[in-house]
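Progress report, Aim 2. The chain analyzed during this reporting quarter is listed below.
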Amino acid sequence: MRLSLKIFISILLLIPTVTMFTLAYQNYNGTDLTLYLSYFSDTVIYVTLSTILSVIIGTISAFFISLYQFPYRNIYQKLYILPLLFPSYMMALVYGEIDSSFMNIWGLIFVTTLVSFPYVYIVMYSHISSISNDYSKTADVFGISTYKKFKDIIFPLMMPGIIVSSIIVMSDSLSEFGASFFYGVDTIMVVVYEHWFGIYDMGTATIISSITLFVVFIIFYFKISMKGKILTNPITSPTNKLIKLNKISSIIVSLGLLIPIIFSLIIPLGVLNEWFILSYRKVDFSDVWLTTFNTLGFSVVIVLITAVLSLGVLYLFKDSKLIRTLLSLNYAIPGLFLSIILLELFTGLSTSVSFFMLVLAYVLKYNMLMLNSIEGYTSRIDRRLYYSTKSVGMGSLWFINNIQVPLAKKGIVLGSVLVFIDVIRELPIMLTLRPFGFETISTKIFYYYDSEWIYYTAPYFAVMLVTTLIPVLFLVRHINDRS
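Predicted structure tokens for the chain:
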């Protein structure tokens, strides 16, 4: 039984990667890829610039908030995480409606940066907070200048966090579909979508997808190789005292940190509030509630499945680097590509199978988030403890229920929050795999945009913000706990 489960899970995790490259080989029709060089170059420009800007904003903000004391610092701690409430396509609609001049590649870079820098901030805040003041004090003893101290000591210690957060933003930007589609920017995701679902050119779509997937795998290889280095410092001090700034410096820092918040939080909330006022009398709220019920119910189902699967994977494959790599690769695969893979595998099947494909795609995509969260709390379980329980007649289920689950409770909660937020916001998988008549918040937003009824998206955006607010506030509390 144990061996059968191992084989089944291994095959399940291998399906996306093997299928994509098999499709590319089978459907290759001699496509001249030089015709698509402009799309590749636009994607490279977009991903590179949005990553650089996100890292700059996220790192600078984390540096000041984690090390210095200034007015409203505690408020900024929370505000810099709240932009996680906004998916990129929501931000794209807001700024596209404010001014149509945003609807190009530069506007796409702008809105992607607004939703990406909080991820950098989260990584860098934890990383910089762990850098001990002992380094600074030692440098002061030897009379090292502030500039040289930062350049030769602090910045090198920050580099692992910068690299990892850059890879996170890079992979997310490469997978972005909704905002680029709304702005009419032909990134690789849009080109694949239009070829597969528009003109049914499967050969070109699979070839471009396989090339992009190879690049994504390279990116995630570096991410995996950096695992464990985010908080690696020879000396750490959890009781670092914040450095007090003088009055003028405090004002400058406070005002500087306010600028990203204005564009990523205050303006979008103001615009959505205006849209809601304009549309609430014309919207069918019974449809809003039904869509909300579908979204929340489906999200809970995915959370439960990923939690059970993650506990099983940790039990069956405690030290398997292969399984960790496959899970990471599946998370790295853009949602649109997962949809193409499953549609090709299960073509012409019933609605019930369509729902199965939908669930499978989300589980393959987001199981890694749950697994990583749980693993942090169960990594100390010695495998010998399992054999000890077996020797006294206790079975595997007893071990999981009485030892693994109690130790993993906090990790399950944290993983559930992360998976819940991402499932609600995910667009391409739900858009392409949902059964007929099954609508969620993200697909309703896409429908009203496609129908050019922008204001009608406001109630659905409002529901999305409210349903993800509590989980995001949980993350705020979790991340800002310096201990």
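The chain has 20 helices and two strands. The longest strand covers residues 68-69. These observations will guide the mutagenesis work planned for the next reporting period.
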